[in-house]
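Translate sequence into structure tokens.
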Amino acid sequence: EELRDLAPNIHVVQGDFDTLNGNPITFPEETIVQDYSWASMCPMENQDALARMRRKLHCDVLISGHTHQNEVVESDGCYHINPGSITGAYSALTPNVVPSFILLAVQGDKVVCYVYELVKGEVEVSKTEFTKRAPVERLYP
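Result follows.
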């Protein structure tokens, strides 16, 4: 609910250890936001695998997770985004996890990606801007 103060339109997908008071919380495994042609999923950090999945889903922005390390990567004019771990939860894949999350502000063809990180008790925010490119359907038949 606290995230809704930042952004009322939130999309969530299932993580490995999503629980509340010891009880499992169920979220969808993937979400496709049709208005902007993007998808959320959870493969590992392999950028080639992410690019294949992005092309298969015909999306401009692919959001993945599991590594607990945030990153925004441009790939063939599209973007792969990993929001990291909002709680800084333990990960065998990433030592010293920095708590983070990503907020995307979408207006028409423009996307502004805000990365929030908790570093030494202080919130740091960085920003990446990009514009939607030519329709994916024409580039990936």
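Note: The longest strand covers residues 110-119.
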